[in-house]
């Protein structure tokens, strides 16, 4: 059986319906567990209690980027193989990804205030996330404005492709433009930059939690979109009869 | 060798099949009149044949096609001659004099298109077909806003085109006085399959 | 192809073509900024590179929806799509016509506004060079946005939302080159990036724009 079998809406509905409760439960356990565990960690000697926002900030930032990557892959699958479910997954992921970006921006601002003494700084990472948020907005707005469903899927897929290139380009352009205050990657593999394992393991748990949360939300939204499409197809048939 | 052939063609409008199973061939010198009630999908069929949208099923063969839809594709700020010159250059077709005289536009050649009446604009839109130099004309309600004299003029132009080895597929309700076959789309209206409660196919759940 | 270019240029300069509106908008924008930030010359000269680039970008945006909307309304776009000219070529030509009627006048007019905004003397050549290198990308990306929104109601607002984020890299490198020119630093690196972006955009975006047009025509 090929992997494309899961692009069959009926099969997708059956399997996603079966795994959704498990994913949702896992998301709840890991999100709550990661944040509570993170709350119980000792205070950082430099940052004090403010460091604990990392358990929301890093996972949401991670899912903000991965959400867009997932939309890119789903868009490519739609353009190449014309599976409707794929286009609907991309559509469903966009608002979730946009909210993740917003969470990363807001928690970043809350973290930045005590650390850098400012709510907002035109730092490359922050600015890149703001730009990513703009791309999410444009993508969602385009889905909302095109009436014909297949045309909307085609146009948003093209936008997603072009937008991905420009989001990446903007990331480097912004680096060129301002060197920034933001610390390097928190989980960098390079020696010396490593964070203490006291924070690392709860962070892994909450990252897993955010991933499962993202997955659960996308599954719910995709299932809704599929039902909506089925409903409108049935109504159209009904109206013509 | 036919100029345009459709085999088992199905076209969709707004995601719904309009007509299906349409097959015909159009040879040099032949005209085919497309008939059928409003909304059956004449325009959609013509746009599909012109290559502006993809057929849902079936095949279209033929590429020497000029399409004339409801809109004439005229620029109000350009003169009659400029409009024709432009389309002649884009399609690499013949010079515009024959087209001007065929639709009796020679007198109006220097007038800007925004100063034309509706019927004159339509005549200009039809004259554009000649300067494309294409063999197959796909015409969607070509006689809208034409008076009786202009319709006769148009029928003459069409006869001339057919006489030179051209062909035409015309969606129209009026009698043009042509020796043409009629293709009535009514029997090809897409049947509504009862919705299956558990669709099994890949994307059948959405169609 | 030449016929299409000539027709578009002719339409732009004839009555109702809207030629010059972008320039007027650019002038008004650069007049409003000193009202907002104060007339002090030192401050204006510091922000002048940014204002001129943002102004050029917004002025360019203003006329984008005309690239395809009018041709779509009067049916010309259907006929162009069935013409022997590849749609990618038509898109590129129409973007070129947009640049010739909007981008190029902005480039020529920008130094005058630079004087009004106290742009430092050494920055002037770099203002012109950066705009010449950058504005073709603005027109081409704009044509892409216009192709995406051509059949839509309320397409104009959506067009800005789609196109403006795509303008960010061009804006960053363009304004940076002028800023470096103003402080006598080396403007070459941002100019190289600017030129690279423009060339890549000109080479690749026509395909995306033509794909979007085909979707919107069916």
From TrEMBL, chain A:
Keyword Ligase applies: no
Domain (Cytochrome c assembly protein): residue spans on this chain: 4-182
GO cellular component labels: plasma membrane
Coiled coil: none
Pfam families: Cytochrom_C_asm
TM annotation in the entry: 20-40, 60-80, 92-114, 126-146, 153-174, 201-220
Listed name of the protein: Heme exporter protein C
GO molecular function, one term: heme binding
Keyword Transmembrane helix attached: yes
Assigned protein family: Belongs to the CcmC/CycZ/HelC family.
Localisation: Cell inner membrane; Membrane
UniProt GO BP: cytochrome complex assembly
Membrane topology: Multi-pass membrane protein
Key words of the record: Cell inner membrane, Cell membrane, Cytochrome c-type biogenesis, Membrane, Transmembrane, Transmembrane helix, Transport
Secretion signal, residue range per the UniProt entry: none
Biological role: Required for the export of heme to the periplasm for the biogenesis of c-type cytochromes.
TrEMBL record, chain B:
SMART domains for the chain: AAA
GO biological process: cytochrome complex assembly
Signal peptide, first to last residue: none
Residue ranges constituting the ABC transporter domain according to the UniProt record: 4-204
Record keywords: ATP-binding, Cytochrome c-type biogenesis, Membrane, Nucleotide-binding, Translocase, Transport
Gene3D superfamilies: P-loop containing nucleotide triphosphate hydrolases (3.40.50.300)
Highest taxon above the source species: Bacteria
Entry's Gene Ontology molecular function annotations: ATP binding; ATP hydrolysis activity; transmembrane transporter activity
Record flagged with keyword Translocase: yes
InterPro entries named in the record: AAA+_ATPase, ABC_transporter-like_ATP-bd, ABC_transporter-like_CS, ABC_transptr_haem_export_CcmA, P-loop_NTPase
NCBIfam families reported for this sequence: ccmA (TIGR01189)
Protein name (Swiss-Prot/TrEMBL): Heme exporter protein A
From TrEMBL, chain C:
Source organism, top-level taxon: Bacteria
Pfam families per UniProt: CcmB
GO BP of this protein: cytochrome c biosynthetic process; cytochrome complex assembly
Keywords on record: Cell inner membrane, Cell membrane, Cytochrome c-type biogenesis, Membrane, Transmembrane, Transmembrane helix, Transport
Protein's cellular compartments: Cell inner membrane
Principal localisation: membrane
Residues spanning the membrane: 12-35, 47-64, 96-117, 123-144, 156-178, 190-213
GO MF entries: heme transmembrane transporter activity
InterPro entries the UniProt entry points to: Cyt_c_biogenesis_CcmB, Cyt_c_CcmB_bac
Membrane topology term: Multi-pass membrane protein
Gene Ontology CC: plasma membrane
Function noted in UniProt: Required for the export of heme to the periplasm for the biogenesis of c-type cytochromes.
Family indicated by similarity: Belongs to the CcmB/CycW/HelB family.
Protein name: Heme exporter protein B
Organism from which the protein derives: Paracoccus laeviglucosivorans
